[in-house]
Description:
Elements: E1 2-5, E2 8-9, H1 13-23, E3 28-33, H2 46-56, H3 58-66, H4 72-76, H5 83-99, H6 104-125, H7 145-156, E4 166-169, H8 175-183, E5 186-188, E6 191-192, E7 197-199, E8 223-228, E9 231-232, E10 235-237, E11 243-245, H9 248-260, E12 270-271, H10 278-281, H11 285-298, E13 303-308, H12 315-324, E14 330-335, H13 339-344, H14 349-359, E15 365-369, H15 376-382, H16 391-409
Parallel strand pairs: 3-4, 3-13, 4-8, 5-8, 13-14, 14-15
Antiparallel strand pairs: 1-2, 1-15, 6-7, 7-11, 9-12, 10-11
Helix pairs in contact: 2-6, 3-6, 5-6, 7-8, 7-15, 11-12
Amino acid sequence: MKAYRGxxxxxxxxxxxxxxxxxxxxxxxxxxxxxGCSLSAGGKMVKAIWESFKSDYTDSYAYFLANYFITPxxxxxxxxxxxxxxxxxxxxxxIEWKRGKRVQAEIDSLKEHQHNLYRAVLNGVKLxxxxxxxxxxxxxxxxxxxxxxxxxxxxxNRQPGQGAPWLFTTNxxxxxxxxxxxxxxxxxxxxxxxxxxxxxxxxxxxxxxxNLGRGEARFGVYNCYLVxxxxxxxxxxxxxxxxxxxxxxxxxxxxxxxxxxxxxxxSPGLMIYPSAAKYVHTTGYVYAELIRKFxxxxxxxxxxxxxxxxxFGDEHLNRVLLSALQNPTLHMIVYLPELEAALATPTTAGHxxxxxxxxxxxxxxxxxxxxxxxxxxxxxEDIPAPALLDDRxxxxxxxxxxxxxVAHSGVVPAVPPPSAAGAV
Length: 424
């Protein structure tokens, strides 16, 4: 494992884990999950989605190659392909072709091939088919074990009076929602309503508590906050200012219809496809609120944000993360498998951003790399398990210390009366 903090290498792994343990118990704790965190659940990275498109939609690939949407260099080396720019170039071509009054058949043909690229993206983000078979299917599936463990640790490490943990993600899939439901953990994602769930930003300002609980239990953590920065498979857009959340089974019907159709259809969910133009798309009401909530969280006092599965390929999110480092009490812990390559010979804009972040040598930033040692499951493993410390346990520990003092000194000290909170 390779790790750096403040630009200097951390040679003692115990020091790294101690830092993570203390950061996980700060006043505000959140994680930022990219597509790499969904691989174990059947998701795909952007590069894998492109390779699937090339093999599954050969006619569309040939069309893009013949019409110079794919260069000969990109055809020879898939590593040179930037799928974000492909979506941009297709959208630009459609606008120009319509303006130039191209033959409608040519425009329709481009739309059909664009639709196939969308289908490849959707196939890469819908996760395992097993999850969709029944509402209980995700509850018993081991593919979500890391997501469950993450939620358990994040919630369990919250102290009485501290806020619930936040989960930010660029993923469209339902991995976090399914994992939380299997644990009976409430998820606040900005939507409210029973039969008609609509988005309102103020829902993120609410929380849950146990009205029947006493002492610490009353102010424990019973929910988590989920901010899906690029939308979700279960979101539908209804006009410029209204977004609705639909049940997963209904979303699955729309997804299947979209994937089976060879003709362009409306997207089954509210998603910003991976294009560089999505920086502009975030000016929409919902996305602006989600990005604002992300920025607001990072500006809070005593905050920790743990990043995993993210390639730093999104310019607008990189700007938010970089600006957040002006908060002197922010701790950013990044797990990046390709960290060494990014620092030595950056080949992508994301790697260049990481290299610049490392060169800033900020003590707030911790970078963890070395391939498998920086995978999502490793981050989950490195977050400490919750310390179950209730009133009875604390009273027992005090008694044990008293017994040890008696054994060593032979003098019996006065035993303090039990606290009101610990009284039976």
